[in-house]
Amino acid sequence: MTQQIVPNIWCNRTAEEAGAFYATAFETTGFQASSAVTARYPAEGLLDFQRDLAGEALVVDLLIAGTQLALVNAGPEFSPNPSISFMVNFDPLFFGGDVDAARRGLDTLWAKLSDGGTTMMPVDEYPFAARYGWVQDRYGVSWQLMLTRAEGEPRPLIIPALMFDGPAQNRAAEAAAHYVSLFAGLPGGSEVGAQWPYGAPTGNATAEALAFGEFRIGDQWFMGSDNGSGVDHGFTAGVSLQVNCADQAVIDALWEGLSAVPEAERCGWLVDKFGVSWQIVPANLGELMEHEGAYERLMQMKKIVIAEL
What we know:
By secondary structure, the chain is α+β, with helices and mostly antiparallel strands. The protein is built from 6 helices and 15 strands. The strands form 2 sheets. It has an 8-stranded mixed β-sheet, covered by helices on one side. Strands 2-3-4-1-13-15-14 form a 7-stranded mixed β-sheet. The model has no long low-confidence stretch (mean pLDDT 94).
């Protein structure tokens, strides 16, 4: 799988610790997982609120069964919440077709992630799954663990799940169509997948709102649903979606199509019309940041201009 979009998780000085925790949790379940520091804060050129982070880890890359997540090591400015969670797809196909082994793997990972965390929906049988649970772990990251059927086209182990509520309530289908249209010209194309409405008003969700929906960007699948709990969470920069762009033309097009909150534009970050935070960056950003003074120049930018790094 070519991963063009990397979910970034904001950590309050815990990125290295969290990376090691997640790698161990998934390895215990039987999946290959690793974490490594891939970028550090420079010694100079930091903003005032970053100066005590000089030399510390900036990004910890977490690789789980071929899916990359990035842990951003920063301060208490943001934190993840259930608006963007990670579906862990316990398809028996990952376990040689053994449903019981998949169930045991789910329970093993649940025990790890729920230790010190908060249960949002306990592990149990539900109308939509033979076994499912939703937990917010000790670092505030939300995970949905589900035993899936070994039928139809396979899905990856980890799928980012966007939940639309607050000002974006009942807009999940609109968002899926918008993202698919915007990314249609990128390698691999994009498409809207299956969608199931609630069928009856549920919480703040209308009957036509999506209880479940999915869309694909390139090789990656995402879930999008409308919150039926009646409790708003709202998107924040606690989890953002980093798009690794081939060149300036792609950066320009995505910036134009996504950015909807001018005051949120900074260092390649933007917020779209649904409230989702994105980072639109060159694919070789790590290489560009090795240029002398690049970090300081990046801190002064809104949209990234590659030629000026």
